[in-house]
Write a structure and sequence with these properties.
Blueprint lengths: L15 H7 L2 H4 L3 H17 L5 H19 L12 H13 L12 H36 L5 E6 L2 E7 H26 L1 E2 L15 H7 L4 E2 L3 H6 L2 H27 L7 E2 L18 H24 L14 H23 L2 E2 L1 H9 L5 H10 L4 H18 L8 H7 L7 H4 L2 H6 L9 H18 L3
Parallel strand pairs: 3-4
Antiparallel strand pairs: 1-2, 5-6
Length: 463
């Protein structure tokens, strides 16, 4: 009969299939560092509180540190029979120091232990995610700084709308990614509550010092309800929600990259290092990185929906269903990490086709609103101005001309209000720089936004 640490009340060993099905060591071994950190803090507290002899607590702590080193050096193989990372480490500890190792679990349960491990892990990966996004934002700011005068068409309904700059377009994604950083910081805040000391679900009779453990593990709070502490996985869902929104932003950006590098747009050229070819069509240069980021977004959405579905019908307190919290979090983090790193490198190496962008802005009547605004400034009511410019655009389409290439006589055939200054008003550079409000595309405002965002990163997203 295989010896289980919980096997005292069982007369029969578990089926091998049950061992395999029940075991989580194949994936939760990733938590070895957090599990050992939590065990060290718990052992130190047990010794401090005279729950176990202080010298035995020191032996446990020193041995746990040795085990951590051995794991990181690849000297330890985990056992499926020991089910999970917690029991594997405890078994290794006991094997090395005998009866003293069995005292480590005094005053705790795997229920509050795994909740602590996961909170430590989520705090760590949320911080790492924020740092990765910071690096992406810095790349975008550098690129924007080089293109504050690069004119391109802005779009609504994927139709050319008004002239903006490439920098202004990039800065829209900076704002999105800033919100992503804030979300991951909120994840850290939500995960920053220590559950250890809740034990299985009703705390313990031992005089634990939970505040000591919280301080040792850098938790800002301790849980106030033991049932909720062991049953809560909201912080995992919070992480998956933040990851999903991040992937949504990356996916939207990827879609634009895919459009921009197509022959139909030709706004940018992707670096060869971040493109692939076709096995049959030798001329092809495919934006596979952007397409994969777009595709992997569905994977992260699935992780979120999977855990939400797992948690929706679970009564208090801990249930084995909650073992399913780890793989979605692990997979989502792995996915966003590789996506953000690769996407950042791809963005840093793109070539911007300035003239193609400017030609597209000039050819789509993107300056029509500015023509209407010019009429308003001459005393024409906006609704009348809107109608006049609509007729002007209709005429220009019939003549296969842009507004810039109509003569003053053609303008005055539509309305006698027009004079030669209309041509200055509809110049694309004027159209952009006259929009000199905070948040606008004018060069002055975009430069100001770049500076403000660099300051924001320095204040809100540090190592």
């Amino acid at each position: 009969m295989s010896k289980k640490m919980w096997g005292g009340r069982f007369a029969k060993s578990t089926d091998l299939l049950t061992d395999d099905f029940n075991s989580s060591i194949s994936f939760d071994q990733r938590l070895y560092k957090q599990d050992i950190q939590g065990s060290i803090a718990h052992a130190q507290m047990l010794g401090h509180q005279d729950i176990i002899p202080l010298n035995e607590a020191e032996i446990i702590v020193n041995t746990l540190k040795e085990i951590l080193t051995d794991i990181e050096e690849g000297k330890i193989a985990f056992s499926v029979a020991m089910e999970d990372i917690h029991m594997n480490i405890e078994a290794i500890l006991t094997d090395r120091i005998g009866e003293i190792g069995k005292k480590l679990h005094t005053g705790r349960s795997r229920n509050d232990q795994v909740a602590t491990d996961m909170r430590l892990y989520v705090k760590e990966i949320a911080h790492e995610s924020a740092i990765l996004i910071r690096d992406l934002i810095q790349t975008l700011l550098n690129l924007a700084e080089a293109h504050t005068t690069t004119i391109m068409p802005g779009y609504t309904h994927l139709q050319r709308a008004q002239p903006i700059t490439f920098a202004h377009h990039l800065m829209a994604y900076v704002e999105m990614f800033k919100r992503d950083i804030i979300r991951f910081q909120q994840v850290i805040e939500m995960a920053n509550v220590l559950p250890l000391g809740s034990a299985a679900m009703a705390t313990t009779t031992y005089p634990l010092d939970r505040e000591m453990v919280a301080q040792a593990l850098n938790f800002s709070q301790i849980s106030l309800n033991s049932l909720d502490a062991v049953a809560d996985r909201d912080f995992c869902i919070d992480f998956l929600e933040a990851a999903s929104v991040l992937m949504m932003h990356l996916s939207r950006f990827s879609e634009e990259i895919i459009l921009w590098c197509s022959s139909e747009f030709s706004f940018i050229t992707l670096d060869d290092a971040f493109s692939t070819g076709s096995s049959i069509m030798p001329q092809k240069k495919n934006p596979d990185i952007a397409e994969l980021v777009r595709g992997k977004t569905g994977r992260v959405y699935g992780d979120l929906m999977g855990l939400l579905t797992t948690m929706k019908g679970i009564p208090l307190a801990y249930n084995k269903d909650m073992q399913e919290d780890k793989e979605p979090v692990f997979e989502a983090f792995d996915t966003i990490k590789i996506c953000v790193i690769t996407f950042t490198k791809m963005i840093a190496t793109i070539k911007v086709n300035h003239e193609t962008m400017k030609k597209a802005a000039a050819g789509g009547f993107t300056n029509a609103t500015d023509a209407a605004d010019w009429l308003v400034k001459q005393g024409v009511a906006f609704r009348d101005a809107h109608e006049i410019i609509g007729k002007l655009v209709f005429y220009a389409l019939e003549q296969n001309k842009s507004l810039d290439h109509l003569s003053l006589d053609e303008y005055q055939q539509i309305s006698p209000v027009f004079n030669a200054s209309i041509f200055t008003a509809i110049d694309l550079k004027t159209c952009v720089n006259q929009r000199n409000l905070t948040g606008g595309p004018a060069e002055e405002q975009v430069k100001k936004a770049i500076s403000l965002n660099r300051s924001w990163l320095a204040q809100h997203c540090c190592e």
